[in-house]
């Protein structure tokens, strides 16, 4: 009975194996059973699509051709040509190598592989391919030229490394220029030149070399980190964040990249938040945020300079003139050619009614950027205010700051009106002087308590100057200039007593 059960089990296993073989045979027929006609169809379609520039579609047909006939060296060679047209030289190399293995005397494949290896900076392997071509075809002109380039490249590579180790970075850069021309797909040469640029104080040139170098290595975490650090040092925190994220995509547990990522993300968030607060005119909160920026990154000059520049701007907007002047002056010392700092300090001087200094700052800013419309308009306004101040300055007449509100202006007016009312003086000469001062005080009050007139005055135009033809002369008692009688308004009802 047991033997019978074993026989039944064995028969079941054999039956299953037989079915599996049939299934596998059918699948292999589907993959490997392509007819020569079908293979030729794929090759022809690949050729047409390649000529039409439809590279992805052409590659698909060449894949099918290779699967249909894995022993055809020409199929591998043609697929390598598509890879090269797509800029995928690394993918082309295995196909060229397979073509050479299938047909060792296939000179076109050897020459093409040698060219790729040369561009990748692999001089020894490239030389072997060019020599193999010349062994079978001694007069092959391209192989001769490429072999000469391989020898030249090797000598230049040695020279570059030698001068770099001696600290002669300028000469190294000069040698690497030709090296990279001959081997543009070699990441090592670009990385070495980037290191030279960093040591020569030219980080932007380093970035230009490192950016393509990161694409030339399969795992270039070090390159992405270096790029992120360079952008960070230049104040380009968004670019810095993008590159360090690329590093973490390759390995989310990379300690160096993760530590740098946390720092950049924190700083970038603070900077974006500060600028958003400024756009919302929440200037004190923006100042607090920029002070946080300086605590987060106290070692990179760009961020300290940027914070002080923007704090200067916020203080001017808040009309905190004296504090703004201190911060703006400190920021100017750090960045003497920053036109935004010069503009903001000029505005602080205007708030303090120091118009000559405001004009000087705007003139200096214009020297650095003659086309800037905002600077030109600011200079024009400062010059007008300076000219006005030499005639009469309504703020100085009342003894108030340019940021004074209406209540402060009226309070100052009342105090001065009581002080300078002509009835307070005895002699005729004193009365005339007092009357003159009283008119000035009343005129100042009229201009500075009227929003439209005050805006004109702040823009460098005296609304009570007859030369501007914009005085308030619409009727009234003509004994007073521009139809304004200071004794008819306000809480003061005095009567002149003339002897």
UniProtKB/TrEMBL annotation:
Species name: Phoxinus phoxinus
TPR repeat residue numbers: 73-106, 107-140, 339-372
SMART domains xrefs: DnaJ (SM00271), TPR (SM00028)
Biased segments, Basic and acidic residues type: 450-459
Coiled-coil region(s): 345-385
UniProt-annotated stretches for the region Disordered: 450-482
Protein name, UniProt field: DnaJ homolog subfamily C member 3
J domain ranges (all copies): 393-461
């Amino acid at each position: 009975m047991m033997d019978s059960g074993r026989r039944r089990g064995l028969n079941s296993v054999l039956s299953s194996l037989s079915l599996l073989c049939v299934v596998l045979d059918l699948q292999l027929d589907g993959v490997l059973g392509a007819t020569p006609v079908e293979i030729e169809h794929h090759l022809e379609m690949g050729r047409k699509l390649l000529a039409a520039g439809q590279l992805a579609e052409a590659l698909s047909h060449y894949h099918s051709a290779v699967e249909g006939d894995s022993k055809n060296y020409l199929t591998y060679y043609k697929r390598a040509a598509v890879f090269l047209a797509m800029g995928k030289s690394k993918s082309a190399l295995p196909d060229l190598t397979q073509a050479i293995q299938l047909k060792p005397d296939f000179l076109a494949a050897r020459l093409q592989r040698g060219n790729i290896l040369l561009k990748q900076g692999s001089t020894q392997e490239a030389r072997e391919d060019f020599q193999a071509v010349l062994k079978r075809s001694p007069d092959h002109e391209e192989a001769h030229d490429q072999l000469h380039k391989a020898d030249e490249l090797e000598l230049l590579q040695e020279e570059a490394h030698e001068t770099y180790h001696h600290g002669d970075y300028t000469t190294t850069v000069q040698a690497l220029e030709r090296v990279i021309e001959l081997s543009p797909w070699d990441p090592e040469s670009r990385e070495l030149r980037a290191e030279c640029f960093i040591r020569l104080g030219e980080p932007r040139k380093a970035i230009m070399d490192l950016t393509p170098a990161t694409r030339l290595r399969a795992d270039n975490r070090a390159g992405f980190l270096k790029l992120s650090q360079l952008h960070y040092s230049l104040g380009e925190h968004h670019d810095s964040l993008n590159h360090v994220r690329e590093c973490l995509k390759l390995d989310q547990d990379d300690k160096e990249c993760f530590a740098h990522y946390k720092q950049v993300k924190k700083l970038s968030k603070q900077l974006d938040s500060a600028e958003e607060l400024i756009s919302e005119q929440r200037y004190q909160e923006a100042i607090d945020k920029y002070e946080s920026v300086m605590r987060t990154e106290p070692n990179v000059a760009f961020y300290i300079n940027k914070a002080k520049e923007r704090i200067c701007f916020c203080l001017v907007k808040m009309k905190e003139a004296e504090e703004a002047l201190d911060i703006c002056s400190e920021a100017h010392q750090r960045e003497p050619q920053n036109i935004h700092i010069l503009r903001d300090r000029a505005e602080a001087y205007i708030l303090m009614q120091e118009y000559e200094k405001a004009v000087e700052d705007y003139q200096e800013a214009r020297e650095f950027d003659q086309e800037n419309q905002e600077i030109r308009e600011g200079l024009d306004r400062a010059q007008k205010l300076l000219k006005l101040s030499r005639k009469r300055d309504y703020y100085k007449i009342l003894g108030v700051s340019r940021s004074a509100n209406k209540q402060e202006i009226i309070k100052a007016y009342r105090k001065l009106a009581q002080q300078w009312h002509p009835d307070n003086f005895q002699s005729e000469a004193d009365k005339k002087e007092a009357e003159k001062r009283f008119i000035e005080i009343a005129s100042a009050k009229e201009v500075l308590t009227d929003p439209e007139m005050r805006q004109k005055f702040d823009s460098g135009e005296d609304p009570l100057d007859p030369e501007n033809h914009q005085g308030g002369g619409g009727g009234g008692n003509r004994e007073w200039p521009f139809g304004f009688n200071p004794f008819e308004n306000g809480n003061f009802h005095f009567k002149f007593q003339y002897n």
